[in-house]
Amino acid sequence: MPLLDVTLESIQAARTRIAGRVRRTPVLASAALDALAGARLYFKCENFQEAGAFKARGATNAVFALAPAELRGGVVTHSSGNHGAAVARAAQLRGVAARVVMPEGCSPAKLRAVRDYGGEVLLCAPTLAAREAMAAQLAAQFGAAFIHPYDDPQVIAGQGTIALELLEELPDLDWLLCPVGGGGLVSGLAVAAKALRPAIRVAAVEPAGADDAHRSFVSGVLAPPPLPVTIADGLRGALSARTFELIRRHVDDVVTVSEAAIVHAMRTLWQQLKIVVEASSAVPYAAVLERRLELRGARVGIVLTGGNVDLDALPWARCADR
Question: What does CATH list as the number for 56-146?
Protein backbone atom coordinates (compact mmCIF):
# COMPACT_ATOMS: atom_id res chain seq x y z
CA MET A 1 0.00 0.00 0.00
CA PRO A 2 1.56 3.35 -1.00
CA LEU A 3 2.71 5.46 1.93
CA LEU A 4 1.23 8.73 0.69
CA ASP A 5 -2.12 7.60 -0.64
CA VAL A 6 -4.25 10.31 0.97
CA THR A 7 -5.34 12.99 -1.50
CA LEU A 8 -7.99 15.65 -1.82
CA GLU A 9 -9.88 13.22 -4.06
CA SER A 10 -9.82 10.43 -1.46
CA ILE A 11 -11.03 12.90 1.19
CA GLN A 12 -13.87 14.05 -1.06
CA ALA A 13 -14.77 10.40 -1.67
CA ALA A 14 -14.81 9.86 2.09
CA ARG A 15 -17.21 12.75 2.49
CA THR A 16 -19.62 11.11 0.05
CA ARG A 17 -19.25 7.73 1.76
CA ILE A 18 -19.98 8.98 5.28
CA ALA A 19 -22.75 11.43 4.32
CA GLY A 20 -25.80 10.76 6.47
CA ARG A 21 -23.76 8.61 8.85
CA VAL A 22 -21.94 11.43 10.65
CA ARG A 23 -22.88 14.99 11.51
CA ARG A 24 -21.80 18.25 9.98
CA THR A 25 -20.64 19.91 13.18
CA PRO A 26 -21.12 23.58 14.08
CA VAL A 27 -18.52 26.32 14.33
CA LEU A 28 -18.61 28.52 17.45
CA ALA A 29 -16.93 31.84 18.16
CA SER A 30 -16.58 34.12 21.19
CA ALA A 31 -15.79 37.82 21.27
CA ALA A 32 -14.25 37.36 24.71
CA LEU A 33 -11.88 34.64 23.49
CA ASP A 34 -11.02 36.71 20.41
CA ALA A 35 -10.07 39.67 22.61
CA LEU A 36 -7.95 37.46 24.85
CA ALA A 37 -6.09 35.98 21.87
CA GLY A 38 -5.83 39.12 19.73
CA ALA A 39 -7.13 37.01 16.85
CA ARG A 40 -10.40 35.73 15.39
CA LEU A 41 -10.96 32.20 16.67
CA TYR A 42 -13.40 29.73 15.10
CA PHE A 43 -13.97 26.48 16.96
CA LYS A 44 -15.02 23.45 14.88
CA CYS A 45 -17.01 21.47 17.44
CA GLU A 46 -16.38 17.78 16.87
CA ASN A 47 -17.40 17.27 20.50
CA PHE A 48 -20.93 17.36 19.01
CA GLN A 49 -20.07 14.60 16.54
CA GLU A 50 -21.62 11.12 16.60
CA ALA A 51 -19.97 9.06 19.37
CA GLY A 52 -18.78 12.38 20.82
CA ALA A 53 -15.59 12.84 18.77
CA PHE A 54 -14.09 13.39 15.32
CA LYS A 55 -13.08 9.72 15.24
CA ALA A 56 -16.55 8.87 13.91
CA ARG A 57 -15.50 10.27 10.53
CA GLY A 58 -12.43 8.12 9.97
CA ALA A 59 -13.86 4.96 11.49
CA THR A 60 -17.08 5.20 9.49
CA ASN A 61 -15.19 5.79 6.26
CA ALA A 62 -12.85 2.85 6.91
CA VAL A 63 -15.59 0.39 7.85
CA PHE A 64 -17.88 1.32 4.97
CA ALA A 65 -14.99 1.22 2.47
CA LEU A 66 -14.54 -2.51 3.15
CA ALA A 67 -16.15 -5.14 0.94
CA PRO A 68 -18.64 -7.55 2.59
CA ALA A 69 -16.17 -10.43 2.25
CA GLU A 70 -13.63 -8.48 4.30
CA LEU A 71 -16.11 -8.11 7.16
CA ARG A 72 -17.05 -11.76 7.72
CA GLY A 73 -15.02 -11.81 10.93
CA GLY A 74 -16.12 -8.36 11.98
CA VAL A 75 -13.65 -5.64 12.84
CA VAL A 76 -11.04 -5.17 15.54
CA THR A 77 -9.11 -2.15 16.74
CA HIS A 78 -7.19 -0.78 19.70
CA SER A 79 -7.99 2.55 21.30
CA SER A 80 -7.85 4.67 24.43
CA GLY A 81 -11.55 5.30 23.85
CA ASN A 82 -12.88 7.57 21.13
CA HIS A 83 -11.68 5.56 18.14
CA GLY A 84 -12.96 2.40 19.78
CA ALA A 85 -16.42 3.87 20.24
CA ALA A 86 -16.39 5.16 16.67
CA VAL A 87 -15.43 1.74 15.26
CA ALA A 88 -18.07 0.03 17.40
CA ARG A 89 -20.69 2.47 16.13
CA ALA A 90 -19.65 2.05 12.49
CA ALA A 91 -19.68 -1.74 12.87
CA GLN A 92 -23.15 -1.55 14.40
CA LEU A 93 -24.34 0.49 11.42
CA ARG A 94 -22.78 -2.07 9.07
CA GLY A 95 -24.22 -5.00 11.05
CA VAL A 96 -20.93 -6.66 12.02
CA ALA A 97 -19.15 -7.46 15.28
CA ALA A 98 -16.56 -5.12 16.78
CA ARG A 99 -13.82 -6.03 19.27
CA VAL A 100 -11.90 -3.16 20.87
CA VAL A 101 -8.65 -3.51 22.81
CA MET A 102 -8.39 -0.81 25.47
CA PRO A 103 -5.70 -0.09 28.09
CA GLU A 104 -6.33 -0.79 31.74
CA GLY A 105 -7.14 2.42 33.59
CA CYS A 106 -8.76 4.19 30.65
CA SER A 107 -11.71 6.52 31.14
CA PRO A 108 -14.86 4.76 32.41
CA ALA A 109 -16.92 7.08 30.20
CA LYS A 110 -15.04 5.87 27.12
CA LEU A 111 -15.40 2.22 28.16
CA ARG A 112 -19.15 2.69 28.46
CA ALA A 113 -19.33 4.37 25.07
CA VAL A 114 -17.73 1.38 23.31
CA ARG A 115 -20.09 -1.04 25.05
CA ASP A 116 -23.13 1.15 24.39
CA TYR A 117 -22.47 0.76 20.65
CA GLY A 118 -22.30 -3.01 21.00
CA GLY A 119 -18.51 -3.32 20.98
CA GLU A 120 -16.75 -6.01 22.98
CA VAL A 121 -14.02 -4.50 25.18
CA LEU A 122 -10.83 -6.44 25.91
CA LEU A 123 -8.44 -4.82 28.40
CA CYS A 124 -4.65 -4.95 28.14
CA ALA A 125 -1.59 -3.42 29.77
CA PRO A 126 -1.43 0.37 29.27
CA THR A 127 1.26 0.35 26.58
CA LEU A 128 1.05 0.77 22.82
CA ALA A 129 2.93 -2.50 22.32
CA ALA A 130 0.40 -4.42 24.41
CA ARG A 131 -2.50 -2.87 22.52
CA GLU A 132 -1.02 -3.69 19.13
CA ALA A 133 -0.15 -7.28 20.10
CA MET A 134 -3.62 -8.10 21.41
CA ALA A 135 -5.35 -6.47 18.43
CA ALA A 136 -3.19 -8.48 16.01
CA GLN A 137 -3.98 -11.69 17.90
CA LEU A 138 -7.73 -11.02 17.75
CA ALA A 139 -7.64 -10.12 14.07
CA ALA A 140 -5.92 -13.42 13.31
CA GLN A 141 -8.17 -15.43 15.62
CA PHE A 142 -11.47 -14.18 14.19
CA GLY A 143 -10.40 -13.28 10.66
CA ALA A 144 -11.42 -9.71 11.48
CA ALA A 145 -10.54 -6.57 9.56
CA PHE A 146 -8.17 -4.38 11.56
CA ILE A 147 -9.07 -0.68 11.65
CA HIS A 148 -5.98 1.21 12.80
CA PRO A 149 -6.66 4.30 14.92
CA TYR A 150 -4.67 6.53 12.58
CA ASP A 151 -2.23 4.66 10.30
CA ASP A 152 -4.87 3.89 7.67
CA PRO A 153 -5.50 5.91 4.49
CA GLN A 154 -9.28 5.57 4.83
CA VAL A 155 -9.21 6.70 8.46
CA ILE A 156 -7.02 9.68 7.57
CA ALA A 157 -9.27 10.59 4.63
CA GLY A 158 -12.33 10.51 6.86
CA GLN A 159 -10.71 12.89 9.34
CA GLY A 160 -9.83 15.23 6.47
CA THR A 161 -13.52 15.87 5.82
CA ILE A 162 -13.43 18.28 8.76
CA ALA A 163 -11.30 20.66 6.70
CA LEU A 164 -13.71 20.43 3.75
CA GLU A 165 -16.57 21.59 5.96
CA LEU A 166 -14.59 24.27 7.78
CA LEU A 167 -13.19 25.88 4.64
CA GLU A 168 -16.62 25.86 2.97
CA GLU A 169 -17.85 27.95 5.88
CA LEU A 170 -14.68 30.01 6.39
CA PRO A 171 -12.69 30.00 3.13
CA ASP A 172 -10.26 32.74 4.19
CA LEU A 173 -8.77 31.15 7.32
CA ASP A 174 -5.11 31.97 7.95
CA TRP A 175 -4.41 29.13 10.40
CA LEU A 176 -5.79 25.69 11.20
CA LEU A 177 -4.90 24.19 14.60
CA CYS A 178 -5.57 20.69 15.92
CA PRO A 179 -4.15 18.20 18.44
CA VAL A 180 -1.68 15.50 17.41
CA GLY A 181 -1.24 12.03 18.86
CA GLY A 182 -0.82 9.41 16.17
CA GLY A 183 -1.15 12.06 13.47
CA GLY A 184 -4.17 10.82 11.53
CA LEU A 185 -6.25 13.93 12.15
CA VAL A 186 -3.64 16.55 11.30
CA SER A 187 -2.54 14.53 8.25
CA GLY A 188 -6.04 14.49 6.78
CA LEU A 189 -6.74 18.11 7.69
CA ALA A 190 -3.45 19.33 6.21
CA VAL A 191 -3.82 17.45 2.93
CA ALA A 192 -7.32 18.86 2.39
CA ALA A 193 -6.57 22.38 3.65
CA LYS A 194 -3.40 22.85 1.61
CA ALA A 195 -5.12 21.58 -1.54
CA LEU A 196 -8.03 23.97 -1.10
CA ARG A 197 -6.12 26.96 0.32
CA PRO A 198 -2.37 26.73 -0.27
CA ALA A 199 -1.66 29.86 1.80
CA ILE A 200 -3.19 28.47 4.98
CA ARG A 201 -0.81 27.53 7.79
CA VAL A 202 -1.48 24.27 9.63
CA ALA A 203 -0.16 23.62 13.14
CA ALA A 204 -0.36 20.51 15.31
CA VAL A 205 -0.25 20.76 19.09
CA GLU A 206 0.65 18.08 21.63
CA PRO A 207 1.31 17.86 25.37
CA ALA A 208 4.89 18.45 26.46
CA GLY A 209 4.69 15.09 28.25
CA ALA A 210 4.00 13.26 24.97
CA ASP A 211 6.16 15.20 22.54
CA ASP A 212 7.32 12.68 19.93
CA ALA A 213 5.62 14.57 17.08
CA HIS A 214 7.37 17.81 18.03
CA ARG A 215 10.76 16.09 18.31
CA SER A 216 10.23 14.29 15.02
CA PHE A 217 9.19 17.48 13.23
CA VAL A 218 12.18 19.46 14.51
CA SER A 219 14.75 16.75 13.77
CA GLY A 220 13.26 15.47 10.51
CA VAL A 221 13.62 11.90 11.82
CA LEU A 222 10.78 9.83 13.26
CA ALA A 223 11.44 9.84 17.01
CA PRO A 224 10.65 6.96 19.34
CA PRO A 225 7.68 7.76 21.56
CA PRO A 226 8.33 8.65 25.19
CA LEU A 227 6.44 7.03 28.02
CA PRO A 228 3.61 9.57 27.82
CA VAL A 229 2.74 11.52 30.94
CA THR A 230 -0.31 13.68 30.25
CA ILE A 231 -3.93 14.18 31.16
CA ALA A 232 -4.69 14.16 27.41
CA ASP A 233 -5.20 10.41 27.14
CA GLY A 234 -6.24 10.57 23.49
CA LEU A 235 -2.82 11.93 22.50
CA ARG A 236 -0.63 9.16 23.87
CA GLY A 237 -0.24 7.43 20.50
CA ALA A 238 2.94 7.66 18.43
CA LEU A 239 3.33 8.87 14.85
CA SER A 240 3.56 6.24 12.13
CA ALA A 241 5.84 6.46 9.10
CA ARG A 242 2.81 7.44 6.98
CA THR A 243 1.53 10.20 9.26
CA PHE A 244 5.04 11.55 9.87
CA GLU A 245 5.68 11.86 6.14
CA LEU A 246 2.31 13.57 5.58
CA ILE A 247 3.09 15.98 8.44
CA ARG A 248 6.54 16.73 6.99
CA ARG A 249 5.00 17.56 3.62
CA HIS A 250 1.90 19.50 4.65
CA VAL A 251 2.17 20.83 8.24
CA ASP A 252 3.86 24.13 9.05
CA ASP A 253 4.59 23.70 12.76
CA VAL A 254 4.25 21.30 15.69
CA VAL A 255 4.30 22.83 19.17
CA THR A 256 3.86 21.59 22.73
CA VAL A 257 1.86 22.87 25.71
CA SER A 258 1.96 22.36 29.46
CA GLU A 259 -0.46 20.30 31.51
CA ALA A 260 -1.55 23.42 33.39
CA ALA A 261 -2.44 25.13 30.12
CA ILE A 262 -4.49 22.13 28.99
CA VAL A 263 -6.57 22.22 32.18
CA HIS A 264 -6.93 26.00 31.94
CA ALA A 265 -8.06 25.66 28.31
CA MET A 266 -10.73 23.08 29.22
CA ARG A 267 -12.10 25.34 31.90
CA THR A 268 -11.99 28.49 29.77
CA LEU A 269 -13.86 26.82 26.91
CA TRP A 270 -16.55 25.69 29.35
CA GLN A 271 -16.84 29.16 30.84
CA GLN A 272 -16.88 31.08 27.55
CA LEU A 273 -18.39 28.70 24.97
CA LYS A 274 -20.55 26.78 27.48
CA ILE A 275 -19.37 23.43 26.12
CA VAL A 276 -17.57 20.47 27.66
CA VAL A 277 -14.44 19.26 25.86
CA GLU A 278 -12.02 16.55 26.89
CA ALA A 279 -8.39 17.28 27.70
CA SER A 280 -7.07 16.15 24.30
CA SER A 281 -9.58 18.44 22.62
CA ALA A 282 -8.43 21.47 24.61
CA VAL A 283 -4.77 21.11 23.60
CA PRO A 284 -4.82 23.40 20.51
CA TYR A 285 -6.56 26.17 22.44
CA ALA A 286 -3.91 25.73 25.15
CA ALA A 287 -1.35 26.71 22.51
CA VAL A 288 -3.27 29.96 21.98
CA LEU A 289 -3.31 30.64 25.72
CA GLU A 290 0.45 29.99 26.00
CA ARG A 291 1.22 32.09 22.88
CA ARG A 292 3.01 29.15 21.26
CA LEU A 293 2.22 30.49 17.77
CA GLU A 294 2.18 33.98 16.28
CA LEU A 295 -1.55 34.46 15.67
CA ARG A 296 -2.12 38.18 16.23
CA GLY A 297 -4.72 39.55 13.84
CA ALA A 298 -5.20 36.16 12.16
CA ARG A 299 -8.35 34.15 11.42
CA VAL A 300 -7.77 30.84 13.18
CA GLY A 301 -9.72 27.60 12.88
CA ILE A 302 -9.39 25.31 15.91
CA VAL A 303 -10.65 21.73 15.88
CA LEU A 304 -12.22 20.72 19.20
CA THR A 305 -11.87 17.00 18.76
CA GLY A 306 -14.14 15.46 21.38
CA GLY A 307 -16.29 15.83 24.46
CA ASN A 308 -16.23 12.41 26.11
CA VAL A 309 -15.36 13.58 29.60
CA ASP A 310 -15.68 11.64 32.85
CA LEU A 311 -17.64 14.28 34.72
CA ASP A 312 -16.75 12.68 38.07
CA ALA A 313 -13.07 13.41 37.45
CA LEU A 314 -12.93 16.93 36.04
CA PRO A 315 -9.31 18.04 36.39
CA TRP A 316 -9.87 21.50 37.80
CA ALA A 317 -11.79 20.01 40.74
CA ARG A 318 -8.33 19.11 42.08
CA CYS A 319 -6.70 22.42 41.22
CA ALA A 320 -6.67 25.71 43.04
CA ASP A 321 -9.24 28.13 41.65
CA ARG A 322 -7.72 30.45 39.07
Answer: 3.40.50.1100
